[in-house]
């Protein structure tokens, strides 16, 4: 039992692939129809029941996510203006930002999924962005310089 999902994975005999146990059924290989039937037999719904969605809560959570995004990206332009002189500002911001977004942001779904699969805990993948964000805060605290009374118009 892994977070309410009753399944286990076993390595099959050579050339056989993985064996998946869903409830009391054993599946070998990957056949979507057989897997869907096993999930339905175990009590998992085939489709989302739209009547059970709590729309106000869903919209409130989306609004909170948008607010957090605005709080993160809003002050960034002012910070960049203070950190870098005008003649190098574009390069100083663009290259590290895009590399960071590609590596940490682009690979985040893959890494979070891999962590969740490895641990068997669907929430374990959330530790990746938490740890990366924590490291970013620590690095910023110790290595970002103070720009008060510094001329950045060079």
UniProtKB/TrEMBL annotation:
Name its cellular compartments. Answer: Cell membrane
Topology within the bilayer: Multi-pass membrane protein
**Record-given protein name:** MFS transporter
GO CC: one term? plasma membrane
Q: Does the keyword Transport apply?
A: yes
- Output the Gene3D superfamilies linked to this UniProt entry: MFS general substrate transporter like domains
Question: Which domain of life, per UniProt?
Answer: Bacteria
